[in-house]
Amino acid sequence: MKYTSTKTALFCRKEFLRIAAQSDEIHEKELQGYLAVNAFTKPIHRDYFEIDMNGEIYLMPRSSFQRKGHVFYPINYTIHSKLWRFGKKIDCLNLAVNRSTTDSRRKIALIDVEKLADLRDLFIKYGAIPILMDGTLLGWYRECSIIPHTKDVDIAIFEEDFPFILGETLPSLNLTWLYRDAILGRPDDNYILKLKIYGQTSFIVDIYAMYLDEKENVSFTTAFDSADFAKLKTTYPRLDILCAVDLLNHIFHAPCNTIDYLLVEFGSNWTDDRPSNKYHWRNAPLNTKTYGYFNKSEKFILNLI
């Protein structure tokens, strides 16, 4: 393969991995052995590479690469292959939403999405890909943003990839912008990791383990209500494949068939705004059901009281 431009930006693949490089004829030997070379761009003020694969756009986070000479190598080959598998870009709708002046006042500053991207990078280092879910997914798909009146962020991670150890080790990382707010449940029973981000604003990030029910062919997350210790289960269409999305110039991941997830949770009126102070997290979602209660001994084991 011949390279004719000293300014050519390349995205290279060796076996199933994608490796970014900038090359000219002098450095052509650095790319020997790669099976394919595809053009990529580095959009200004965005934290990802953009790759055109025969008309389909793929996104890869810049933070997942390390540079050696003219070649950018994956930092973690295992997670890198997943990022590529889940790299196909899908777009949001950017709909105009009718809401009151009060509900238009932002609880989470948009600049703090940078901190959310830092949290994304932390999970990627642990081999996990965070998934936008619930109200956060709705805000991205409907408005290409975060819903102004929302006070928290909802994220899920596939249970088999969930870094449960992070909840215990986070304080030792000495991060000034990220603190552990609570660990609820157990890895095999209603687990939720609640983190608090401190940026221009401060807000909670609820991180759920996404489980797969092979028998019912659905995916689900679990939670509980501390008011009566009810066990809650939120069921979604089966989730196996993710797509890459742009949330305010930062790459995140979401279900490829986003609309199906919004319909099961919010119903056919998902385009209508529902003020957060009138939306009860337990009763409002159409796909959340109570399936049991913690007994007295479990309350102590789970540190619920």
Automatic annotation (TrEMBL):
It is found in: Membrane. Keywords: Membrane, Transmembrane, Transmembrane helix. Coiled coil: none annotated. GO terms for cellular component: membrane. It comes from the Eukaryota. It is a single-pass membrane protein. PANTHER family: FUKUTIN-RELATED (PTHR15407), RIBITOL-5-PHOSPHATE TRANSFERASE FKTN (PTHR15407:SF28). This is Fukutin. It comes from Mesorhabditis belari. The lineage of its organism: Eukaryota, Metazoa, Ecdysozoa, Nematoda, Chromadorea.
